[in-house]
Amino acid sequence: MLRVITTNLNGIRSAERKGFFAWMAKMNPDVVCLQELKAQVPDLSDEMRAPAGYHGIFHTAEKRGYSGVGIYSRTPPARVVEGLGNAEFDREGRYLEADFGALTVISLYLPSGSSSEERQAAKYRFMDLFLPHMQALIASGREVIVCGDWNIAHREADLKNWKSNQKNSGFLPEERAWLSRLFDEVGWVDVYRTLHPETTDACYTWWSNRGQAWAKNVGWRLDYQIATPGIARRAASAEIYKDERFSDHAPLTVDYETP
User: Fold this and answer.
1) Model confidence over 174-190: pLDDT tens digits?
2) Which position among 149, 158, 190, 223 bears the catalytic label?
3) What are the tens digits of pLDDT across the range 138-171?
4) Burial category of 153 from C-beta neighbours within 10 Å (exposed 0-12, middle 13-18, buried 19 and up)
5) What angle do CA 174, 178, 179 make, to 5 degrees?
6) Structure confidence at residue 211 (pLDDT)
């Protein structure tokens, strides 16, 4: 069994203080994809750089305390790609790709557009860049899992208050249609939804810090493992962990049967 975890930590140092690494050790994953490190490599403790039994790789933002992605793995990756080759977004530390044998795992932090029109425009620029990249990945013939915070809820079932959020970033028609293209036209698979087609309230992975969103479970499903069909078919379980809170996001764990 191959166990893959993805989680937006909303600050790796904060998540460490909240017990993330103790939980990770108990889960015994093979690969962990991290987003929103809010740190650069020199800021990381030895445990954060390479937890016991794991190798760590990172793609961090130039701006301190912002963005950044990482991957922990039991075996060292054979090949690593930092960034998409786009200066605007590579400065923000949003994409890290690692090869393990016949499998590629990617940690992705898609931009949020909720803070301003300018950031929403940047989000659309990223999406325009990323769709052909996803087409090229699937055309490569490799098995790929793209893990991360996609900052888009795909369907009405993927957020509590869908009616009142139709004009808000993260649930705009253009964003949802873009994800639909990835699945329906390009051929990627939403692993959690395949295993949990009817789940609503239990599917959320992010809760606003405003109001009583967590207490009332007013959440959004923003964190996905999106995979090529071959490995997606081997997904045996997908679970969202909410017993402890390490971040405003919850970790998503998927177990894949190994051939």
Assistant:
1) 999 999 999 999 999 99
2) 149
3) 999 999 999 999 999 999 999 999 999 999 999 9
4) buried
5) 125
6) 87
Cβ atoms of residues 91 and 137 within 8 Å: no
Domain count, the chain: 1
Q: Token pair 């970033």 is at which residue?
A: 169
Give the domain CATH number at 215.
Answer: 3.60.10.10
Token reading at 145: 């899992």
- What's the CA gap between 240 and 37, in Å, rounded? 20
Provide the residue range defining the domain that includes 22. Answer: 2-256
Give the rounded distance of the alpha carbon of 228 from its chain centre.
15
Cα(172)–Cα(167) distance, integer angstroms = 6
- Letter for the amino acid at 201? D
Q: Annotate 42-81 with b (16+ C-beta within 10 A) or e (fewer).
A: ebbeeebbebeebebbbbbbeeeebbbbbbbbeeebeeee
Q: Which of 21, 15, 22, 107 is nearest to 70 (CA)?
A: 107
Distance CA 170, CA 128 (A): 16
Predicted TM-score (pTM) of the model is: 0.97
149 is catalytic: yes
Q: In what order do the strands lie in the sheet with 189-190?
A: 79-82, 95-100, 103-109, 143-149, 223-227, 189-190
> Whole-angstrom Cα distance, residue 10 to residue 33?
13
Retrieve residue 203's tokens: 């599917």
The continuous run of DSSP H or E covering 89 comes out as helix 87-90
DSSP 53-80: T-EEEEE--SSTTS--EEEEESS--SEE
Record the tokens describing residue 1, joined without a space: 């069994």
